[in-house]
Amino acid sequence: MSIFLASVGFGLLTAAVLAIAAVSFTLQFAVTNVLNLAFAAVMTAGAFTAYGLNRAGVSVWLALPVAMVACAVLSVALNLLVYAPFQRRGSAPITIVIVSLGMALIIEFGIQAAVGGISVSYKMSQGRPYHLGGLVLTGVQLVIIAISVVVMLAAYLTLRYTKLGKSMRATAANRQLARNCGIRTGRVITITWAGTGALAGLAGTVYAIDIGSFGPTSTDLFVVLILAAVFLGGPGHAYGAMLGALLIGVATEVSAAYIVPSYKYVIAFVVLLAMLALRPTGLLGARS
Amino acid sequence: MLAVGRARNSVSTFRRSSRLLAAIGAVALTATLAACGSSSSSGGIASGQKIVFADVAPFSGPDAALGPTYLVSCEGTTAAINKAGGVLGHQVSCTTADTRGDPADAYPAVQSLLSRTHNLELVIGCTSDEAAAVAPVINSHKTVMFCMTGQSLFDHKHYDYFYRLVPPDLAESYAMTVIAKQLGYKKIALAFGNDIGSQTFVAPAISAIRKAGMTMVANETLDLNATTFRTEAEKIVQAHPDAIMTEALGSADATLLSEIKQLNGGTVIPIIGTSAAISPAFFTSAAAAVGASDFANNFHADNLVTATSGPAYDAFTQSLLAVKGKVSGAQTGDFTTYFTAPGAVHLYDGMNLAALAMIAAGSTETAKWKPYLTSIGDGVPGAVTVNSFAQGVAELKAGKKIRYVGPGGPTSFDAFHSSPGIFQIDTYTPSGVVQVSGNITDAELQAVSG
Fold first, then answer.
1. Does position B11 have pLDDT exceeding 80, yes or no?
2. What CA–CA distances, in Å, run from B167 to B120, B152, B360, B418?
3. Given this model, what pLDDT does residue A286 score?
4. Nearest to A224 among B11, B222, B329 (CB)
5. Looking at residues B187-192, what average pLDDT do you find?
6. Digit-coded pLDDT (tens) for A146-188
7. Which of A262, A270, A275 to mutate to test the interface with B (most CBs of B within 10 A)?
8. Of B263, B281, B314, B372, whose CB has the highest number of CB atoms within 10 Å?
9. B47: how many CB neighbours lie within 10 A of its CB?
10. Residue B42's pLDDT band (cuts 50, 70, 90)
11. How many angstroms separate the Cα of B155 from the Cα of each of B118, B167, B169, B403, B418?
């Protein structure tokens, strides 16, 4: 198999996981106005929730919805107990970002204190390998890609055709105006925290399944990739985040094939910087 | 680290800023406390106060398994010392400083440790991740340290208070090459983490592979913070190596090996690891990633020769078993793996040497007891060999000179206070028990050394 084809395939797999996280992150940011750097830590919490159940004998696929619920609750709690009080006090956005960074460390080190600094794996079969045009993917990896496609479609349909989606878009566009139009923005924001939290739990668990072995700090760099995908696509744009995830995923893996692999993320960020220099609002952001 | 460092710089400025603030805070605190009076124990310890040994190592980050391993050794050794009456009437306790495996974090962590810890007599740990950054600081503080680093820097730079009971890293690279040669491998792939500790193995390994007449078919540097290594794994699989030499701690090796297995049609390529792979945490994560049987059947690692029976071994294992299940972060895997873990064995010996040196000197003043480290370790004419702290105390009380020979074997300190040991080859059983499967002679090492 050519290394190029293999790296493109691996890039698509990375992009599938990244897209779930990036879409969720950017929706959260757009609607709640919180650039939540604790998002990846919530993902880790989801991965370890599923791990706890898996260790107790539960299939990781059955543990997945439980992890989603746990992360939804954690995200809502984060907002109610931490971010919302700061926002009510009129704290500057940069203050909230720093608060979220602090929460990321608290959650990450909390997990580490509970489970230790070791790496763990789910007890699960990877399924039989499938040869797709020279690319080898396992059954589980194909399921991950399928989950990602379903999430992207669901996000599209929700935002486009449901009352909730329209309320979210209105709240993201202009919270005051949305409230004046009768939209209960507070409720929309809470639902958004719950929904994006659940997606963080989903992303964390499939990420842990995908990488095979994970620990409390495994998402440290992943949050940077999420930010790159979000800003490449245009912050607050769900479809931009999907596109950004695809570009970042493929760029990192293809660059790993042809340069020193430890520089692969540098290449991804060169792409991002070049993009932002040419179009500061991102691929799908408004021109002005 | 370049990739990670740049990526983090570009996006997560605040993380850096908070680190910088923490570092500034730590330096300010150090300066304040230094102005108020040093907490150094070099002047001796007041009656009734505890002596402190500090475990300076990664407790978080990719190498987070190292700190708890050393802490098991510290807690076990100090418990045995206290049970035998302590040191000159002082009980001994352990404290920790988390270096996160990064010099930038290690420096302020050690500064903070030195300023806040009263009666600090000994530092253990200081791995290759942080030794170059912290050893000069600890040395300036006139505190003895037993470090788990093989960095060549310490082969020619003399630090008066620096000691180590492990060989230079290049010798470990040679040992891995000898293992490959003994097993009949011809084509070798290298896959080492991008941390300082792992990268020191690469250059000597390349040289040794060439000298041994083997071929290096791939050389992948693994970003320890990366999410996957699929492309790196594919490049290794396409190079068709007979074996992979590797050290990439944290979850990196486990992830890489599982991806190699998947891309290689479900077959694990034989692995040759460093002595750092002899730890419960490493076995647990690797076995979980590729399957315990597959991993055990395909894994070899170099390790220093340690006792597996006899009075030194018995005293050592009893010490560690006394703290089984009580040390935070060390409840994973088969506890008996610690009996052959280099950090556990050699730091146990280092701590016993230090405690016996204090008793022999009749003082907790560092300047007075430090010279006894060499004389008790290497022995002097007429010295009685002792295999445990308690035995050493008894002989010293009887007015005899002693030579301490612990589970790590006899020491032979050179001018730089390094005492390299002898290598053996270790494997795992599928249940995670470490077995010795062969030995490596000096002649074999010489044959591949650059």
1. no
2. 26, 10, 27, 8
3. 60
4. B11
5. 96
6. 999 999 999 999 988 999 999 999 998 888 899 888 899 999 9
7. A262
8. B281
9. 7
10. low
11. 31, 10, 10, 25, 8
Classify burial at B313, counting beta carbons within 10 Å of its beta carbon; exposed 0-12, middle 13-18, buried 19 or more: middle
Q: Structural domains in chain A?
A: 3-278 (1.10.3470)
Residue B20's pLDDT is 44
- The C-alpha angle with vertex A269 and arms to A268 and A275, in degrees rounded to 5, equals 100
Q: Which two tokens stand for residue B79?
A: 């418990």
Overall average pLDDT of the B155-181 stretch: 91
Residue of B nearest to A273 (CA): B10
Query: ipTM of this predicted complex?
Result: 0.71
Low-confidence ranges of chain A (pLDDT < 50): 287-288
pLDDT band at B35 (very low <50, low <70, confident <90, very high): very low
Report which residue type is found at B98: D
Determine the distance in angstroms separating the CA of B281 from the nearest CA of chain A, rounded to an integer. 6
Q: Are A26 and A233 contacting, i.e. CB atoms less than 8 angstroms apart?
A: yes
Here the tokens at position A272 are 């991002």
Q: Please report, as a single letter, which amino acid is at residue B184.
A: G
Instruction: Please tell me which of the candidates A101, A116, A123 has its beta carbon nearest to residue B329.
Output: A116
Neighbours of A149 (CB within 10 A): 12
Query: What residues of A are in contact with residue B100 (Cβ under 8 Å)?
Result: none
- Percent of chain B with pLDDT strictly greater than 70: 89
Of B4, B8, B288, the CB nearest to A121: B288
In 3D space, the residue among B289, B275, B301, B300 whose CA is nearest the CA of residue B408 turns out to be: B275
Q: What is the rounded distance in angstroms from the CA atom of residue A173 to the CA atom of residue A171?
A: 5
Between A13, A215, A223, which is nearest B250 by CB? Answer: A215
Among B334, B333, B338, CA closest to B316: B338
CB pair distance less than 8 Å for B281 and A117: yes
Q: Do residue B262 and residue A138 have CB atoms under 8 angstroms apart?
A: yes
Nearest C-alpha in B relative to A214? B251
CATH top class, domain B169-306+423-448: alpha beta
Q: How confident is the model at residue B3 (pLDDT cuts 50, 70, 90)?
A: very low
Judged against a pLDDT cut of 70, whether residue B26 lies above it is answered with no
Task: Indicate the SS3 state at residue B23.
Answer: helix
3-state secondary structure of B36: helix
- What amino acid occupies position B40? S
pLDDT value, residue B6: 29
Q: Considering CB atoms only, which of A13, A221, A228 is closest to B226? A: A221
Q: What is the DSSP letter of B122?
A: E
Buried b (16+ CB within 10 A) or exposed e, A194-212: bbbbbbbbbbbbbbbbbbb
A270/chain B closest Cα distance in angstroms: 10
Sequence-distant (6+) residues with CB within 8 A of B326 are B75
Q: Do A261 and B221 touch (CB under 8 A)?
A: yes
The gap from C-alpha A198 to its chain's centroid, in whole angstroms, comes to 10
| C-beta atoms of A222 and B227 within 8 A | yes
Residues of B in contact with A101 (CB under 8 A): 12, 14-15, 18
The dihedral over CA atoms of A98, A102, A105, A110, expressed in degrees to the nearest 10, equals -160
Q: Choosing among B228, B260, B264, which should be mutated to test the A contact, i.e. which has the most A CBs within 10 A?
A: B228
Beta bridge partners of B244: B189, B271
The domains of chain B are located at 169-306+423-448
The dihedrals phi and psi of A104, each to the nearest 5 degrees, come to -60, -45
Cβ distance A266 to B194 less than 8 Å, yes or no, reads no
